[in-house]
Amino acid sequence: MTRVVSLPGDPGLGSEVARYLGIAHSTFLSKRFPDGEVYLRLPEPISSDRVLLVQSTYPNQNDRVVELLLALEVLERYGNEVVLVAPYLAYSRQDKEFLPGEAISLRSIVRALSSAGLSALVTVDAHSSSAIREFLGNRRYINVIPVEVFAEALRTYRSQELTVVAPDQGAAERARALAEELGCNYVVVRKSRDRVTGEVTHSLEPLEGLKGVAVVFDDIVSTGGTVASIATFLTARGVKVVLAVSHALLVGNALEKLTKSGVREVYSIPTVAVRVPGVRYLELAPYLAELLKEEGVV
Ligand code: R5P
Looking at the whole model, is its pTM more than 0.90? Predict the structure, then answer.
């Protein structure tokens, strides 16, 4: 039997996916010990099942990762086959050693999850799916990029007036796919980062001459700095800017920064366990459920 089990970081996708697929759903009981350590318990014994374990890892990344390790331990010990559905996998941006001696956090997290009993992994628009694939070894891996979900919402704009903007080279493939779905063009901005100071610079020349509506399409928006500098440039040239982002972390005053830079709308999907007022969240669960069915995961 296949069932869905949610952890505390599930942004509500587990129960919706289970309902959509008509399969059982349960939730781990969780509490904190007085010193802050995590306690988990399965509410009822589950053994010899295929379990879709749903956990997102933002906010409170460190607690969410520990919950995952504990959940995998118990599910594996009871003989279940665990497919982890992690709509947002934290620590993904450090996917290589940029400076000598740096920890490759993504490698560390993926290896820890693998040795804790994971048999397959499903992510949504992972920052570096190729690195995850490499670190997972021969375990099955599916990275879902729901361009159709964003495209459906963006069809309120006429394709002739739209251009999709990739805020860096890493976002080019995602932008190409969305542009294809919308029947419009796309452009790629060049971004470089000083690895010591962290300072980011953009070469915005590819945006010169752009008209109409620009859809900036990124995987993660954290401080909003990347998108704000693009939006400031475009807004000053009379272009209307909207943002489509898979993981709207929007820390601190990020949304305000985006609005001030001229971003008119922010579209996102519920991959993290926060809802920021003012963001338009699109439905993800039916799309995810269908895809899991198509891929033979359920
Ligand atoms: C980086 O490569 C990511 O794809 C995002 O562009 C980045 O995380 C955005 O960060 P921020 O919103 O802080 O500029």
Answer: yes
